[in-house]
Amino acid sequence: MESAQFHHYGVPTTVKSSNETYLEGAKVYITDPEAHPFRVEFLRFDADSPMLKDIQVNTHAAFLVPSLAKALEGQNVIIPPFDATETLRCAFIKDGDAIIEVMEKR
């Protein structure tokens, strides 16, 4: 796989944070990992979130990649590419028990 750069560590939580952003499509509140000293992103899901349970209950590591399409080749894709923000396109893969988010800047 092409060079991947660590971006954040995603941690599901039920604790509300003062600096959350709501992603309506995923029905999840997220914090900004770039504002955390160890690049942790906390995710607080609505009860009716359409996100896979694996994502809702397990931590994940996220990496920026030069090409999302190339990074997904031959991988076990559990959430296909989607536009997370105006500047990021993301997908989730599973490697054994590890959940990995791959992200491409647009």
Descriptive report:
9% of the residues lie in helices and 46% in strands. With 106 residues, the protein is mostly beta strands. Strands 2-3-4-1-5-8-7-6 form an eight-stranded mixed beta sheet. The model has no long low-confidence stretch (mean pLDDT 95).
How far the N terminus sits from the C terminus, by CA atoms, comes to 19 Å
What would you say the CATH architecture is?
Roll
Instruction: Summarize the biggest pleated sheet.
Output: 8 strands, mixed
Which class best fits the helix and strand makeup?
A: mainly beta
Mean pLDDT: 95
Q: Count the domains.
A: 1
Strands ordered across the widest β-sheet:
2-3-4-1-5-8-7-6
Task: Please compute the radius of gyration using only Cα atoms.
Answer: 13 Å
Unreliable segments of 5+ consecutive residues? none
In terms of DSSP E residues, the strand content is over 45%
- The CATH superfamily appears as 2,3-Dihydroxybiphenyl 1,2-Dioxygenase, domain 1
Give me the strand/helix succession.
Answer: EEEEHEHEEE
Please name the CATH topology: 2,3-Dihydroxybiphenyl 1,2-Dioxygenase, domain 1
> What is the number of strand segments?
8
Determine the number of helices (DSSP H or I, runs of at least 4 residues). 2
Outline, from the CA principal axes? globular
